[in-house]
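Suppose you are handed a protein chain with no further information: no name, no annotation, nothing but its sequence. What can you learn? This example shows the usual starting point.
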Amino acid sequence: MQTGNLPAGVPKPNETLGYGIIRWAQKFIVQPDGDTAGESWKFTPEQLRFVLWFYAINPDGTWKYSAATLRRAKGWGKTPLLAALAIVEFLGPCRFSHWDAFGLPVGKPVPLPVVQVGATALDQTEQTMDMIRGMLSESPAEAVYGLDIGKMVVQFKSGKPGSIKPKATAGRTNEGNRPTFCLMDEVHHWVGSNGGPDFYQTLKRNIEKTTKAGSRWVCTTNAYNPNEDSVAQIIHESEMVAQGYWLYDCLEGSIALEDIRDADAVRAALKEAYGDASWADIDGLTRTILFDRTTPDSTYCRFFFNQIAESSDGWMSKSEWDACFDEDDPIKPGDQIAVGFDGSIRGDSTGLVGVRLRDAKLFILGVWERPENAPDDWEVDVLAVEAAVAETFRHYRVEWFYADPPYWQENIGRWAIEHGEDYVFEFWTNKPTRMVQAVERFRTAAMVGDLRHDGDHRLTRHVLNAVTREVPQGLLITKDSPRSKRKIDLAVCAVLALEARADAIADGRMQIRRSRVVGW
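A reasonable first move is to predict its three-dimensional structure. Written in structure tokens, the prediction is:
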């Protein structure tokens, strides 16, 4: 099942440089390994389709897509395709030149090709670089273009400028580069703990310096864990993908988690996820999934079915949370709402979440998170929080406001004086009995369909970041580790907001029409 934005079919010959690029690759590149090693390189039909759309052009010769992501199952063949594109961008006719007499686009090489293979550590680039060397060694390209194929760099023997080389995270030393093309492999592993998101932004900024000349990037990924805030997730949730500016090719296997022990369902989903990757051992993978109990099912879903899945200790699954999404009937000024507030000063995020009384629809009123590159003395802008609280009371009919007091007791006391002591209340989240009950009520509401949200990705991220921790009173939600950068504060705000709604309704602050039931 194609779940990306890859168009159906293939573009017409006058709509892409891809046909010429495919012919060039088959002429100059060789198969790097296997039984056909040394023979002319051949793309699979699915790879051909990706190449044709990635090199699609507009009527003025500019790119249809400014970047691309290839999300496929583990072992599908992402790295060989990436290596082939690196060579094409280094040597091939990969930029628009002109239209020929038949109205077909003609490509030309990049004058000064700087191709970078990005990863969070140099050893992670080895597989792609090995594949590139294998495709070029003893190939027609090596002789025709006069290549010096080294272990870490591919360049011209003549000294002509241009290269293919790996690039790893190294702080600010990567700023200022001007790559003409960048490969980012396995970006589901690019997470905050290894500097992946910062590195991605640096590479992206460097590429954007020369986008007018046609510079772009391509990344590959397996399905990501939504608890990790990886680059794969950042890209997938980007408006550039949603609006169709970035190409996103994703083939998923259709299977529900409860069917993962059904042999026929597993085999069918694997065939769907692997498409025309004839080398994939479908029978072997089926046996592994059915009988290996050492690996969580969520891992199989991500790596073999290419489905986004969270770790098994997550508080809320993505499918459960997505089922609560409601884009209809947006929140409006004047609506009756309840509010949850969870505040910090330095370490954690500070958030303000509202919920409409009549339908339990959650929405964000404010969030203050420490930026990735913020100095050590960064603090929450208290005045901005104060302004957001005041704005909330001005724009909505706030019936109940629950706030977690630590660090903010003086502020909460003032809010109670300004807006009414029977509207603003403290809610100590460190009191386990009360918090356990609130967390359970929230999850139950989500499961039975009594909860809604407007799809805000920040609230979604915090909810999916939350994991459960068992205490004598029951289950609490917490971060996956004390020093984790994956915040859950908006999830806590949402729990408090829903509790505030329940207490507001119980206090009679909203007239609830009930159908009259007559018994006989």
